[in-house]
Design brief:
Layout (H helix, E strand, L loop, with lengths): L6 E2 L2 E2 L16 E4 L2 E3 L4 E9 L5 E3 L4 E13 L6 E2 L2 E4 L3 E8 L16 E3 L2 E2 L8 E5 L8 E7 L9 E4 L3 E7 L10 E4 L3 E4 L10 E5 L3 E4 L6 E11 L1 E7 L11 E10 L3 E6 L7 E5 L5 H4 L3 E3 L7 E5 L4 E6 L12 H11 L1 H11 L10 E3 L8
Parallel strand pairs: 3-5, 4-6, 5-7, 6-8, 7-9, 7-10, 9-12, 10-13, 11-14, 13-15, 14-16, 15-17, 16-18, 17-19, 18-20, 19-21, 20-22, 21-23, 22-24, 23-25, 24-26
Antiparallel strand pairs: 1-2, 25-28, 27-28, 27-29
Amino acid sequence: PPPPIGVTTYGIQGRAAHIPEDKWRGWPDVEVVGAVRLTGDREVRGIWMNEENSPSLNLNGHLLTVSDGGINAYYNESAPPIMGGEITSSRPFLTIRSGTYGSSQVDYRGNKIIQNLHIYSVIRDNDDHRVGLLVTGSHPEGERGRVSLTGDQANTFTGDVIVEGRMNTLHLNKSDGVTSILGNIFVRKLASVNIVSSDQIADSSTVTLSERAILSFSAEPKAIREKIHALVVKEGTSRLSFYHSEGIRDNFKKTLILDDLLISDDGFLQISGWEAGRDHLLVRKDSEHLADAFKKITIDGWAKNQVYLKDYDKEYWSIEAAPEPSTYGAILGAVGLGLVIYRKHRHRMRSACGEKLGGAASPFKGSVALRGLRSRR
């Protein structure tokens, strides 16, 4: 949904009022001016934070309940933080709109430096219902809305997460192993989700990308691992990025582990930033949809028919590119057959593999690939 009446991407006008914290009752729209520290549980229609007022909000161990006004932050050179306590919503979704309005800071390349709205507070379900998270909003050309779930305390809300709209990004930036999201995630309409630390998403979650969405790993100089139930791609080409710092050679592994990979007939997955031996996209060998999805994947820098599956361990395939030349002839056309055999005869395949695939005379060398595989030129 668009911002409420009276709120523009260039600042806050009209609707929100500077109300003392102890009067945040009766569903007002409140504007945070300076450092505000709650002295009790509070309920408001919406929260407004504008850099011009130097805002910061400390929930101080209390519960803040937000209605359909959501959390709205607009800033330029510094982003306002929200910390301490817990946040929930009286609505099915907690809506967050975050964006700059003409950042004047640039990096050494001349690119604008875009700050994150950091939410350190724990987002939780309402006592009466589950709560999801909606990150949305529109921005001036070249600007972004970036929300970062940060801190060392896990979120406990169980509803779906929706990130939508051009240049809107949700950063999953809690400490390694501290859960940011328990539910399913839907990223759509040119939006993105960025994984900054390991194990941010529940293993049971499904991530759906549509309409040119992006799921990426941060360029932070550290190994990052994420496991989810399924990655679903539909409605156009979306991207999975194993992002690393530009122009800097590093060996920090970025690993995404899936139970299943599903790409619809109108979807396509483009993988970028991937390097053989460093980064891994792993899919379970009993994946229901991998055989079909495999045909709809490209890896930047490699031709489509240079993408293949390789044994990672007894449970997972690794999606790779550019196999060793000695395997070319042996692995042609084996992907469909290998996956069908694995799913239908798993209990027999363990013993059969030693004779058919793993023996000294085996031509497979632990790899399977698409028909028509060619060497990289």
